[in-house]
Amino acid sequence: MTSDIGLQASLQPDVVKLKPNEGAQINIFPKKYEFDALDLETTGRNPSTDSIIEVGWVHFCGDKSERVYSSLVYYGGELDPFITNLTGITSEMVHTAPQAESVIPELLSRVDGHPVVVYNVNGFDQKFLESTAASLGLELPHIQWVNAYSWVKEAFPGLQNYKLETVADVLGIKEQHHRALSDASMAGEVFLKSVEQIGSELIVQAYSSVYRYPVATLLFPIDLSLLKGENTN
User: Fold this and answer.
1) Does domain 34-198 bear CATH number 3.30.70.250?
2) If you count DSSP H runs as helices and E runs as strands, how many of each does the chain have, helices first?
3) In a 10 Å sphere around its CB, with 0-12 CB exposed, 13-18 middle and 19+ buried, how is residue 205 labelled?
4) C-alpha neighbours within 13 Å on the C-beta side of residue 125
C-alpha cells in the first residue's frame, strides 16, 4: 500500500480468514520514510515571464536530511533590487552561474518518482519547474507533490500567519530565509513536525463471509517512530 505522502507498507497476507472466536496478528514493518524537499528562487512570480535563479533540494530519510543539492542558475538580466534584498542574490552572482541546461536536468533526475515536499499556496514551485522544463524541451518526470503548507495549517491552527519563516520560527527551526537550500530544508522539517502533530492511524476493516460490506472497522494509532524507520508491530 502506498499513501499520498509516500508512506509504504506491505501486509502479508493481505487477507486473513477467521473462524468464529479465532484471532490473528498483523505485523507491520514499514520502509524507512523517505521524501525530497524542494525550493526555487526566481526573478519574479510569473512562470511565463520570470526565471529560476536558484534551486535547492534536500533528501530526507527518516527524520534526517541525508543529501543536498543546490545551485544558482544563470540569468543574463539585472535582478530587481527587491529580489536582491529578499534573497541576497545579486546580478553578478547569476551572471556567472551555471546554465539552466545543466542545472534543471540534474534537479529533475533527483526528484524523479519521489514524493516532493514544497511549501507554497498556489503551486509556485511546481509551475516554475514545469515552465522551465518545457522551455528547455525536457519532459517533466512523475513527481508526487506534497504541499507542506496544507499540512501546517491543519497541524497548527491559529498562527499569526503561515509564511514559511514564521512557521519555522514558531517551531524552533533555525535556518537562513529566502535562499533555496535553506527554504527547502525548512519545508521538509515543518512537514515532519506537522505529520508528528497530526499523527496517523491504521484502519483495519473486518468482513464476514456473507456480507460484502465491512461488519467492523478498527482504528489503531501508528507509532510515529516509523518516521525514524523503526519497526512497529
Assistant:
1) no
2) 7, 7
3) exposed
4) 29
What is d(CA 123, CA 131) in angstroms, rounded to the nearest whole number?
A: 12
Secondary structure of residue 90 in the 3-state scheme:
coil
Predicted structure pTM score: 0.75
Which SS3 state, helix, strand or coil, does residue 201 take? Answer: strand
Query: Which residues are paired to 61 by β-bridges?
Result: 34, 64
Query: In 3D, which of 38, 32, 104 has the Cα closest to residue 67?
Result: 38
Residue 22 has a pLDDT of: 72
Highest mean pLDDT (candidates 23-37, 122-136, 199-213): 122-136
The dihedrals phi and psi of 110, each to the nearest 5 degrees, come to -80, -30
pLDDT digits (tens, 9 = 90+) for 146-167: 999 999 999 999 999 999 999 9
Q: Report the mean per-residue pLDDT for the chain.
A: 82
Grid coordinates representing 162 are 503561515
Which of 108, 109, 102 has the alpha carbon at shortest distance from 73? 102
From residue 54, give the alpha-carbon distance in Å to each of 40, 106, 130, 147.
6, 13, 15, 20
Per-residue pLDDT at 28:
53
Is the CB of residue 175 less than 8 Å from the CB of residue 34? no
Closest residue by Cα to residue 152 from 161, 144, 142: 161
Instruction: Give dist(CA 93, CA 199) in Å, integer.
Output: 43
Integer angstrom CA distances of residue 115 from 36, 74, 143, 216: 6, 27, 6, 32
User: Domain segments of the chain: what residues?
Assistant: 34-198
What span, in angstroms and rounded, lies between the C-alpha atoms of 6 and 116? Answer: 9
Judge whether residue 169 has pLDDT over 70.
yes
